[in-house]
Amino acid sequence: MGAHPGICINEMGKIGVSSKNRLDNSAGRGQSQPTVRNVAVSPRAVSGMERGEGRVRIAAFAPSRKQWEPVAFASPSLFLIGLVILFPLAYAFYLSLMNFDLSVGSEYEYVGARNYLEALLRDGRFLGSVWNTTVIIVPSLALELLLGLGIALLLNRAIRGRPIVTALLAIPAMVSPVMAAMAWRMLYGVKFGAINNLGRQLGLLDVYFDWFANPFISIVAVVLVEVWHNTPFMMLVLLAGLQSIPQELYDAARADGATPWQGFWSITLPLLKFTMAVGVMIRMIDLTKLFGLIFILTFGGPGGATETVAFNTYLVGFKDFRMSYASALSYMIVIGVLILTLVFVWVQRRREARAA
């Protein structure tokens, strides 16, 4: 390559960068000789140099190792996430815009938002499942929060064997929903169930009682199983929040003559609000997707009284074979959970801003 006033390349594939000293005009000195510093350059960079109008332009270098190495290490996980999560989401949304019914055939046509409009305006079964889900969510959340808070307050005291007691109380949360539902299905059994037999031996029941024959009793039975299964989760979340509160605040309150009840309302509850909000939000999202307990315990009965939105979506897709409509119902669940979460976060921020 030709010479350049600022850059030169020697035979060894190095770039020489020349620098000139300033003229000392006051002393009348001449120009000093340029000094050349050799900088190692890869052959790819040298081949990418271009000449144009007395200038030498160096093409952009390839990404450095620090830039592509994290992407390379994460690429298997990103591929699995795209294959298992993103692709089903995209394909389900595509199906929700079609009329695809396996009971009719494999043909399908584009219908736009007709499936969504049917769910919101004409499907009384789906709207009824929304009401059933709400009826199950509200008492379950209230009981789990109250019981979890009470147990967490007891475990927050300095008692002997607290780690062992905490681990034992957390066992129900470690059981899968299907296994919990099967165990309680046997307990609720009409003739051979432990609850009916114990009630008859204690004289509380005169006959064998069917816990799933009445809509109200069925909802109560589902709520009791849900509370038993997930109260330990709320207990652990609230216990972690209680242990993060500085003990000095309680010592100062006692020094000022505050009672334990006043300390709870003035110190514990205000500092525990954020933790309670997080726990309630997680449980609310989880209860919106309630499926396993309903499938094993009641199968949506009696008369659809315990049919939740997730179970209704299952019936539409795998019993009626309306795959497009089931996909639309799935997205309705996602949109509903997103709206509930945003409203909950907005209300919590308004309260925090008002308190500040």
Summarize the structure.
This protein is mainly alpha-helical and about 350 residues long. The protein has 14 helices and seven strands.
Written account of the structure:
The protein has 356 residues and is mainly alpha-helical. It has three domains: 7-58, no CATH class; 65-110, no CATH class; 123-355, MetI-like fold, CATH 1.10.3720.10. 63% of the residues lie in helices and 8% in strands. The chain has 14 helices and seven strands. The chain has helices at 43-47, 65-96, 114-122, 124-155, 162-169, 171-174, 177-187, 194-201, 215-243, 247-255, 260-288, 292-297, 309-318, 323-355, and strands at residues 7-9, 14-19, 35-40, 49-52, 55-58, 98-100, 108-110. The strands form three sheets. A three-stranded antiparallel β-sheet has the order 1-2-3, with no helix packed on it. Strands 4-5 form a two-stranded antiparallel ribbon. It has a two-stranded antiparallel ribbon with strand order 6-7. Helix 4 (124-155) runs antiparallel to helix 11, helix 4 packs across helix 13 (309-318) and helix 13 runs antiparallel to helix 14 (323-355). Mean pLDDT is 82; it is low at 1-59.
Q: State the name of the first-level CATH class of the largest domain.
A: Mainly Alpha
Shape: globular
Characterize the biggest β-sheet. Answer: 3 strands, antiparallel
**What's the alpha carbon Rg, rounded to whole Å?**
34 Å
H/E element string? Answer: EEEHEEHEEHHHHHHHHHHHH
Structural class: mainly alpha
- Tally the helices: what do you get? 14
Q: Low-confidence parts, pLDDT < 50 over ≥5 residues?
A: 1-59
The amount of helix comes to: 55-70%
- CATH homologous superfamily identity of the largest domain: MetI-like
Please report which band the strand proportion falls in: under 5%, 5-15%, 15-25%, 25-35%, 35-45% or over 45%.
5-15%
- The domain tally reads 3
